[in-house]
Amino acid sequence: MIFKGLLDDARSIRDRDPAARTTLEVFLLYQGFHALILHRQAHWLYKHKRFFLARWLSQFARHLTGIEIHPGATIGRRLFIDHGMGIVIGETAEIGDDCTIYHGVTLGGTGHDTGKRHPTIGNNVLISTGAKVLGPFKVGDNSRIGANAVVLQEVPPDSTVVGVKARVVKINGQRVSSPSYDLDQIHLPDPLAQELCRLEHRVYANEQKLKREEQRDREADE
């Protein structure tokens, strides 16, 4: 059963990464897959209260792959960790099926919580390079998190979030049905720039209104 799950993981990575040529290549050369293998063993030890051995194995995986996954974290099927260097996944984090995580991602806590401290990631979610998801909330199914976004609150299903602090941007107000690795990383909207543009328009409109009022006052005085 465990071998079948790992085989599904490897085949999923092969199918989703255009650089992967064979399943054997994934087994032998992909550090994201190696991190998954070691995490599933560490998580088994953690569930059976072998906490020291579980943590030792997770630290060994960290030194081997550059990916730090706490043995308490729950990871679903067919996770694709692309490149992976610098990823940190906390103890109470939960990740659903068919997700994609790029390098530099943190699924962490805010430092103020007890118990459930880390995010729950739904199914078919993509988390782009350098994104930080911090806190015990849920990221809904089929969502996309843009590069370097800092997510501090719940994300509805079928949404894209971008920016610091991240804001939700619906994709045409419709459900996202594409696979989790399909995201245009270049043409994401910039909510901060959009807000500044709206403020600029408001300032311009107010200036024009004041000029018209001043003109009327001068004409009335004359």
Describe the structure.
With 222 residues, this protein is an alpha/beta fold. The protein contains five helices and 15 strands. Strands 3-6-9-12-14-15 form a six-stranded mixed sheet. The protein has a five-stranded parallel sheet with strand order 1-4-7-10-13. It has a four-stranded parallel sheet with strand order 2-5-8-11, with no helix packed on it. α1 packs across α2. The model has no long low-confidence stretch (mean pLDDT 86).
What distance separates the N and C termini? Answer: 92 Å
Morphology call: elongated
Topology order in helix (H) and strand (E) letters: HHHHEEEEEEEEEEEEEEEH
Portion in strands: 15-25%
Identify low-pLDDT runs: none
Counting DSSP E segments of at least 2 residues, the number of strands comes to: 15
Query: How much helix, percentage-wise, in residues?
Result: 25-40%
**What's the tally of helices?**
5
Our Rg estimate from Cα atoms comes to 23 Å
Main sheet specs: 6 strands, mixed
Mean pLDDT over the residues: 86
Concise summary:
With 222 residues, the protein is of the alpha/beta class.
List strands and helices in order, with pairings.
Elements: H1 2-16, H2 23-29, H3 31-47, H4 51-65, E1 68-69, E2 74-75, E3 80-82, E4 88-89, E5 94-95, E6 100-102, E7 106-108, E8 120-121, E9 126-127, E10 132-134, E11 138-139, E12 144-145, E13 150-151, E14 159-162, E15 167-170, H5 191-221
Parallel strand pairs: 1-4, 2-5, 3-6, 4-7, 5-8, 6-9, 7-10, 8-11, 9-12, 10-13, 12-14
Antiparallel strand pairs: 14-15
Helix pairs in contact: 1-2, 3-4
